[in-house]
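In response to the reviewer comment on reproducibility (Comment 2.3), we provide here a single inverse folding case reported in full, input and output, so that an independent group could reproduce the run without further information from us. The structure tokens appear first.
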């Protein structure tokens, strides 16, 4: 059973909540999938059953090809509702996550104008690392992270390249639904997305922290 953790290994005393995701928050990623660049954030939700630790990533092979999208993950520590000010101070921690996607399923659903849940919200589709306490909101202005697959650098995200900064994202989200303590916000992925294979060795690194390792296990 997944539980939020600090990078020190201690459990975080927050419930496991929803995951609010942002689509197309990096222009280069939108372009690599031939998608238009949005004029405001695209929001969708993964349920808490999507969460698993970024360690041994177990996925169902029967669902099809799982595509990775490495993203900066924000752990919400205090309620954020419509009209709230100083939203960045309500972030408890920062980590990294993979927004896993069944790309073929997503493409089919999009072509029919259907919601994305079957492609985005399936069990285990959000492996997440432990979190680092947010020292200061200004840390998020120039934060960066890297993702490797089998030793090859595949993605390098920088918050300064986001179409919508983190304060704007939290404000936009809270216009539609309240963020609760224990919720996670995924802030969008840069270019370089691709397929996960059985046995892949993965690494995620936030800023200059020690890279964290995981392995992909595909089961029937």
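Designed residues, in position order:
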């Amino acid at each position: 059973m997944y539980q939020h953790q600090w990078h020190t290994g201690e459990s975080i005393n927050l419930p496991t909540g929803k995951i609010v995701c942002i689509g197309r928050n990096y222009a280069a990623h939108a372009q690599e999938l031939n998608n238009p660049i949005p004029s405001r954030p695209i929001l969708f939700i993964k349920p808490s059953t999507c969460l698993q630790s970024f360690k041994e990533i177990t996925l169902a092979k029967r669902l099809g090809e799982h595509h990775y999208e490495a993203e900066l993950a924000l752990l919400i520590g205090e309620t954020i509702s419509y009209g709230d000010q100083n939203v960045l101070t309500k972030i408890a921690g920062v980590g990294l996550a993979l927004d896993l996607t069944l790309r073929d399923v997503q493409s089919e659903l999009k072509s029919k104008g259907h919601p994305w849940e079957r492609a985005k919200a399936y069990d285990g589709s959000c492996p997440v690392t432990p979190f680092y306490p947010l020292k200061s909101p200004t840390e998020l202005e120039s934060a960066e992270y890297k993702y490797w697959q089998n030793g090859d650098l595949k993605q390098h995200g920088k918050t300064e390249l986001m179409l919508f900064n983190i304060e704007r994202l939290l404000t936009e989200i809270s216009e539609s639904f309240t963020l609760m303590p224990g919720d996670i916000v995924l802030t969008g992925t840069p270019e370089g997305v691709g397929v996960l294979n059985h046995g892949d060795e993965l690494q995620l690194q936030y800023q200059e922290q020690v890279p964290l390792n995981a392995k992909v296990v595909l089961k029937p």
